[in-house]
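Loading example: each entry is read as two labelled lines plus one structure line.
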Amino acid sequence: MNGLVYLKNVVTLELDAEKCTGCRMCLIVCPHEVFGIADRKAVILQRDLCMECGACEKNCPEGAISVRSGVGCAAGIINGILRGTEPSCDCGSSGTCC
Amino acid sequence: MVQGKMNVEIPVVSTGWTASDLWNTIKVRWSVRRMNYTVAPGLYAVGAPGTESHVFVTANFKLTFDLVRRELAGMNAWLLVLDTRGINVWCAAGKGTFSTDELILRIEKTGLSGRISHRKVIVPQLGAVGISAHEVKARCGYSVIYGPVRATDIPAYVASGLKASPEMRKVNFSMWDRMKLIPVELANGKHYLWLVPALFLILSGINRHGYSVDLAYKNGLRSVLVLYIAYLVGCGLTPALLPWVPFRRFALKGLLTGMITSLILMYFGLLGNNVTEIVSWFLMIGAVSSFTAMNFTGTSTFTSLSGVQKEMKTALPAQITMAGLGVILWIISKFIGS
């Protein structure tokens, strides 16, 4: 991904190979080609490319994937600290955000 | 945009853009009325769709809606617009408005099932952050098919029989992608963009003999220029050059570009001629550039929450310290300088 790689070894993505049925849904929804298939089961190929968006967890019919998903956004994290909530890019109706 | 009505209350949309669509897109890119640029949620027709036509799901941010309808040129299709409060698909999915519940609700409310014989909806891939395909299937019988990430790939995706190539499934972040987002970044500073420079302008008049309007004008304008340059470097230049600036942490990328900028400005004499002031500028420029570059994590397409939290833990205290120390030194320099 030509130099656009974020920090190493921080991602919370976990895959339970026992539960996986190899339906490939995680391969379809992942925007960064994190998953691959080996022996008819999903495997994590490029963990450090994961951005913790949570699409794979949400679309795994077997509940084999877990990830602490959220916004990888400094402004959102500051918002969360100021309001004492989870990191959120939800700036309500007043703010300009994504 | 709306060309007419079909039999029962279905607006038919054109696939072309008018001059005002283009002008509004440019304005929204510059953050002008970006938060209420919406279309009404509901079902729209493109061309003359029938019972076998594809159903494309999208968000009610008009920028998104326009990009999608433009790509449906020449097709007969249904366009199901979810209520995302004017937010794009990916962000809305993250916030939970582009969701399983909203999709099911919108399918019911629009009476979609009465207009089509199949039970398939094509959802943009990035919507998967908020939609659970198996849950939609279980709750209302519809199959969710994940289409390409980008609307521009829709024609090729349809032509290949709803097969997305690996390239269509990947999120990129090209130089042009980043450039398009910089105007919004620049506008993020909001009222600080004139408040802070105004403060520096006024404070520039301070000296050991009291206050000089002359000095405020002479050194103040220079300070304002330096501040704007630091801001432009942090949230304009650094994002544009993102892959080529060393370091993985955005805060470090911004710190580096800030330091290089400081050196260049020093060379041209823009940081003044006393050491205390020059040092104060290195600290302030570094803090501004580092902080604004760090904020680009939210705009980028590849940073994770865990990663950003990790880098902020050290970066934020460092930026606050640098900025605070910089301001103090800058004020002190007014009393020891010429």
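Residues 2-169 of chain B form a domain with the Rossmann fold fold (CATH 3.40.50.11600).
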